[in-house]
Write a structure and sequence with these properties.
It is a single chain. This protein has a single domain, classed as Growth Hormone, Chain: A (Up-down Bundle), CATH 1.20.1250. The longest helix has 35 residues. The protein is an all-alpha fold. The chain has 16 helices and no strands. Helix 10 packs antiparallel against helix 11, helix 10 packs across helix 14 and helix 12 packs antiparallel against helix 13. The two termini are 33 Å apart.
């Protein structure tokens, strides 16, 4: 006889979800701190928008390269918690060295480390949560996304507040501590929580793993979902780069109010992610994704017609609600179509696609901004999410009709 499944509300179920989500928040705390200090790095080092964009390209190129082996390593070893901890410590080290140096090349190297470890997190964490709550993936991954939104919301505000009295160097170094603290918590509390995954990994030989992976990549739903997620991430990544620059250079906001504006963008996601995740468990992934994509397209293009700072910030908060609602639902949609033994590998494929496509966004956006102004970048970002809409429609329906 098997033991009855634990209640969704039990501590046994919720503590792993909360701690992994807290770790996700820490990875985004690190990245969001870099994005906030980027305008001041640009100003202090006398960089062009294109050079600033290339720093972010380092982030996404490293993310793409890290995703190639990371999913395979997770699925073949089952060491999901340990890999999450390594990702947190590596990201913290990268952010610390961003603050430690004033050399453009050294900052680029540090940002590369942040990018690699930031995306190393996702295959391990999403595979872990997907296996932890297989019947409530939308909920589990929405709480995971909620952690990211909290990190993205609080980090800019905290960093902006610190920069009222500190340099951007000290702000980056201080904010790096978060990753180390959360990594320690994960190892102490959850290090024994991936025993099932490790046992399953020992049963899988490499030849079988390769054959199953090739078969999975041949399915249209897999590459449709990956490309859709990639185009959506081009828009999101571009917005995170050029929105702070727009707030600083066009709307002339000080660091604190920049942080407040970016926090409002994330608050929309904090509200939307759990609602969207739970709703997708009940009515399906497709309608939630299509609604979010369509609304995001309209809002991104609409930002170009707003000149008042107050109205612009209000529109940002609504955009965050629509944009971030989709993220956990897309991840859950892919996990629904993926064999459990390949959960990390398919997650790696999705995030690798996202990183690869997003890597080209900052330099393209930088060239557009240098030539036509920052307003023109938003037309490009709107076109990206419009393509994502079309790809969402291309995902074939499953046997359940999703």
């Amino acid at each position: 006889m098997t033991a009855p499944a634990a209640s969704l509300r039990s501590r046994e179920v919720q503590i792993p979800v909360i701690l992994v989500s807290l770790g996700h928040g820490a990875t985004h705390w690190i990245a969001a701190t870099f994005y906030l200090v980027l305008p001041f790095i640009t100003r202090d080092l006398g960089l062009s928008y294109t050079e600033a964009g290339l720093l972010v390209t380092c982030f996404y190129v490293a993310s793409a390269l890290a995703n190639v082996p990371s999913g395979s390593v997770v699925d073949l070893t089952g060491r999901r918690i340990l890999i999450q901890a390594i990702a947190l410590v590596g990201g913290a080290a990268g952010l610390f060295f961003v603050g430690f140096t004033s050399s453009y090349l050294a900052i680029a190297a540090a940002v590369t480390l942040i990018g690699a470890t930031n995306m190393l997190w996702h295959p391990a964490a999403i595979a872990y949560l997907s296996g932890h709550l297989p019947k409530n993936r939308g909920y589990a991954l929405s709480i995971h996304a909620l952690g990211a939104n909290v990190g993205d919301a609080v980090a800019p505000l905290f960093a902006g507040w610190l920069m009222l009295t500190m340099t951007w160097h000290a702000t980056a170094e201080l904010n790096a501590i978060t990753g180390v603290v959360v990594a320690a918590l994960l190892l102490i509390v959850l290090n024994g929580g991936d025993t099932v995954a490790k046992a399953e990994a020992k049963k899988t030989d490499f030849r079988t793993y390769i054959g199953n992976t090739i078969a999975a990549f041949r399915k249209r739903e897999v590459w449709s979902l990956c490309l859709m997620a990639g185009m959506r991430s081009m828009m999101q990544g571009g917005l995170l780069v050029f929105l702070p620059l727009f707030l600083a250079d066009e709307l002339k906001l000080n660091p604190f109010w920049m942080g407040m504006a970016l926090m409002l963008l994330q608050i929309g996601g904090i509200i939307a992610a759990p609602i969207a995740g739970v709703l997708s468990d009940r009515i399906g992934r497709r309608p939630i994704v299509l609604a979010g994509m369509s609304s995001t397209t309209v809002l991104v293009l609409g930002l170009t017609f707003i000149s008042d700072a107050t109205v612009f910030v209000a529109a940002i908060s609504i955009l965050g609600f629509c944009m971030y609602a989709m993220r956990p639902v897309i991840h859950s949609w892919l996990m629904d179509r993926t064999p459990p033994a390949l959960a990390a590998t398919m997650t790696s494929a999705m995030f690798g696609t996202q990183s690869t496509l997003t890597a080209i966004t900052p330099p393209i956006g930088g060239l557009i901004a240098d030539a036509y102004g920052l307003h023109a970048v938003f037309y490009f970002l709107g076109a990206c999410v419009l393509v994502a809409n079309a790809l969402a429609l291309a995902v074939p329906r499953s046997e359940t009709g999703d």
